[in-house]
Specification:
CATH topology of the largest domain: Molybdenum Cofactor Biosythetic Enzyme, Chain A
Radius of gyration: 31 Å
CATH superfamily of the largest domain: MoaB/Mog-like domain
Number of helices: 9
Shape: elongated
Structural class: alpha/beta
Largest sheet: 6 strands, mixed
Bound molecules: ligand LQZAQKY5, molybdate ion
Number of strands: 27
């Protein structure tokens, strides 16, 4: 058996980042930014008012109070969007709205609430100090200051910063084109009646949905029987259109496993036993001839175990980092949290446990409990509905006791995670 880290290192070593496209900001949401960008316009672009009120010379109103108000002549009206820069002499003011450029002669804003709101002459009943309620040009970012880095996520927040700093487009990495092939003669479409021995194909939905959550563009989702010719035909049709093909099922010791039969003989895909539970049998490699021309780089191929919880864990531990690396993301592994076990559970001997779990944030901190009442089991697909993450328990641990601290990963889609 090999360690999880060694398998992941193999995957990442074979992963070549995809090229980038320059797209309008609105089309970039959620994708990985492929260029490091500096601020083009100063932020704010000009010195402007933080309040609806009056632009004044602070010295004129330094002593203003309710008892001793000061009267000023209003010589201009400055709505947001104006380009005016009127002269303001001693004893004068300009009415100004939030966001309008502050005239060069003014050095303070008096909010309208501290005045009588006059349009030709205004009575000011509170003092102002120089600079008050003024937002200085460039106080947030100066032109040339760092703004976003290659490898970060085009989050809603990053897009608003880019738009404000003078950009209409941004280079983002191309989405990985991904297909899912679920193998197994027992599989039927979801919702179909089941004859004895049949089961609904849940892995297709599981893997394709996770892939989309992690930035992939779905090329196709195909279900094939355990006939080698069916899998061969699916690979022929998909190989040239995909960056990644994820297969589920047929990677263990079964006598009718087309995945191994087709892909292992010439070593295109290696089949390993990884010291994890679930997820022990793993296939990984790159498709070559006869599915891809000799001089072309074929798609990466994952052969995930068919058990649904095994496929889920395998996707999260191996495929997800690969999709992130293909997109040039600066962080490919999930952040781990420490959580306190709410109850005891058993762990498998000799393999690191990846347990579907319910992770809660309480007043007392983060807690974790198994998603399945009966603990671990790679077939317990119903319990996945209750999982919002997984716990990682070291291979040397035989049992987790209530109150123990364990490592957990909380699942959020990559756009939400801002990784
Ligand atoms: N003799 C041995 N048998 C098994 C071993 C072993 O080491 N020696 N390993 C076990 C482990 S661990 C795993 S995990 C599974 C992996 O099995 P396969 O990847 O070969 O998958 P299948 O046999 O095709 O299916 C396993 C299980 O999952 C169900 N399945 C398959 N595809 C789907 C799907 N698309 N949707 C829902 N469920 C699916 C399938 O019906 C089986 O119940 O092997 C163990 N055996
Ligand atoms: O390793 Mo398997 O994935 O336990 O069920």
């Amino acid at each position: 058996m090999i360690e999880v880290e060694a398998q992941l290192a193999d995957v990442l070593a074979a992963t070549v980042p995809l090229p980038s496209d320059t797209v309008p900001l609105a089309a970039a949401h959620g994708r990985v930014i492929a260029e490091t960008v500096t601020t083009r316009y100063a932020l704010p672009p000009w010195t402007n008012s933080a309040m609806d009120g009056y632009a004044v010379r602070a010295a004129d109103v330094a002593a203003a109070s309710k008892e001793m108000p000061v009267a000023l002549d209003v010589i201009a009206d400055l709505p947001a969007g104006t380009s005016a820069d009127p002269r303001i002499l001693a004893g004068q003011a300009a009415r100004i709205m939030t966001g309008a450029p502050v005239p060069a002669d003014a050095d303070a804003i008096v909010p309208v609430e501290a005045t009588d709101g006059g349009e030709e002459r205004v009575i000011i009943s509170a003092p102002a100090t120089p600079g008050v309620h003024i937002r200085r040009a460039g106080e947030d970012r100066q032109p040339g200051d760092p703004l976003v880095s290659a490898g970060s996520r085009a989050s809603a927040e990053a897009l608003s910063a880019l738009a404000s700093a003078g950009y209409g487009t941004i280079a983002v990495s191309r989405r990985p084109r991904l297909a899912v092939i679920a193998t197994g003669s027992e599989l039927v479409a979801p919702g179909e009646p089941l004859a004895r021995g049949q089961i609904p194909d849940s892995n297709s939905l599981l893997i394709s949905s996770l892939a989309v959550e992690n930035g992939a563009e779905l090329v196709d989702v195909v279900r094939v029987s355990d006939e080698v010719s069916e899998l061969d035909a699916a690979l022929r049709s998909l190989a040239k259109r995909c960056d990644v093909i994820v297969l589920t099922g047929g990677v263990s010791m079964g006598a009718y496993d087309p995945v191994k039969e087709l892909l292992s003989p010439d070593g295109q895909v290696h089949f390993s036993k990884v010291a994890m539970q679930p997820g022990k049998p793993q296939g990984f490699g790159r498709l070559a001839e006869p599915w891809v021309a000799d001089d072309e780089l074929g798609p990466l191929v994952f052969g995930l175990p068919g058990n649904p919880v095994s496929a889920w864990v395998s996707f999260l531990v191996f495929v997800r980092p690969c999709l992130r690396a293909l997109q040039g993301a600066s962080t490919v592994e999930d952040p781990r949290l420490s959580a306190r076990a709410e109850i005891d559970w058993r762990t498998p001997p000799g393999r690191r446990q990846y347990l579907p779990a319910r992770i809660r944030t309480t007043d007392a901190g983060v807690t974790v409990s198994p998603a399945a009442a009966r603990g671990s089991g790679s077939h317990l697909v119903g319990s996945l509905a209750d999982a919002n993450g997984y716990a990682i328990v070291d291979a040397s641990v035989e049992r987790v006791y209530e109150g123990d601290v364990v490592q957990v990963v909380r699942l959020v889609s990559d756009v939400d995670a801002r990784l």
